[in-house]
Amino acid sequence: FLAQVRAHPRLPAVECDGPATSYEELAALAKGIAGSIQQVVSTPSPRVLLALRPSTTAYAAMIGTLIAGGTFCTVNLEGPENRSASITREFSPDVILFESSPSSFLDDTPATTPRIDVSQPATHSLDQPTIEYSEAAYVVFTSGSTGQPKGVKIGRTGFSHFLMVASTYFDLKPGERWGQFSNLGYDLAIMDVFLALTQGGVLVPLASKKDQLLPATAIKEKHIAIWQSVPSALELMIQAKQLSADYLAPLRIMSFCGEPLLPHHLTALFSERPDLEVFNTYGTTETTGFNTI
């Protein structure tokens, strides 16, 4: 990411509502968050809980945690509060990042756990990544479909290797637009953020209700070139009668993970865009992000 900042400082990095945030601006925000973390936590490798919705600030918080030498864990603020509370207890954060007002599931966290409102300007910037860092880049929790959600530590070395390998398949060009559809508590969201921002892409969060229910409209209106999601998103496009060449025109690659990609999905997709490159991957948190079988 920092190499992209040096190479393309004024290139758009994130496009949310309003003006786009450049790589230079995103780096400054991340370094400010890293400085805030180090100001309130004495632990050299802090565990940082991100109670944030998809946004420029949330992405900066992920990067800022790594710059500060920490390990981050994201929660889905749109999901059940009891799950978020369970994850928070299990993760046992050294510091909690929130924006504007803390979520109610944080009420039971120890009063001694520092909290940082990342909507407020940082008073200190960490310009260089700390050399004391946790080997775990992040912790992601399983769905809990077989019982209690389990936290899986993803190491920095393995994560870096994954990004290097995956980037050769996606081959993102600087300035290409990557749609970020998954909630931040899901491992695919972390893949979106880092695969886009380590290759000079423009990360475009699709977090509104309209974007979630009409993903093909978002692809067309936001000029999304790379799409990664569960196959259920294709079902939404089919139901809305928007799985057409017109709506899918900006796309170069679609990648599906986490659920079975069925034959009728591909038949409908390739009948409209036979030139599209499609990855059918299997989502497995324990192998960092996804693999193909």
Task: Give a description of the structure.
The model has no long low-confidence stretch (mean pLDDT 91). A 5-stranded parallel sheet has the order 10-9-11-12-13, covered by helices on one side. The protein has a 4-stranded parallel sheet with strand order 4-3-5-6, covered by helices on one side. It is globular and about 55 Å long. It starts with a helix and ends with a strand. It has 293 residues and is an alpha/beta fold. Strand 1 and strand 2 form a beta hairpin. Helix 2 (23-40) packs across helix 3. The chain is built from 10 helices and 15 strands.
Give the arrangement of secondary structure elements.
Blueprint: H1 2-7, E1 12-14, E2 21-22, H2 23-40, E3 47-51, H3 56-67, E4 71-74, H4 81-91, E5 95-98, E6 115-117, E7 136-141, E8 151-155, H5 156-170, E9 177-180, H6 187-197, E10 202-205, H7 209-213, H8 215-222, E11 226-229, H9 232-239, E12 253-256, H10 263-272, E13 277-280, E14 282-283, E15 290-291
Parallel strand pairs: 3-4, 3-5, 5-6, 9-10, 9-11, 11-12, 12-13
Antiparallel strand pairs: 1-2, 7-8, 14-15
Helix pairs in contact: 2-3
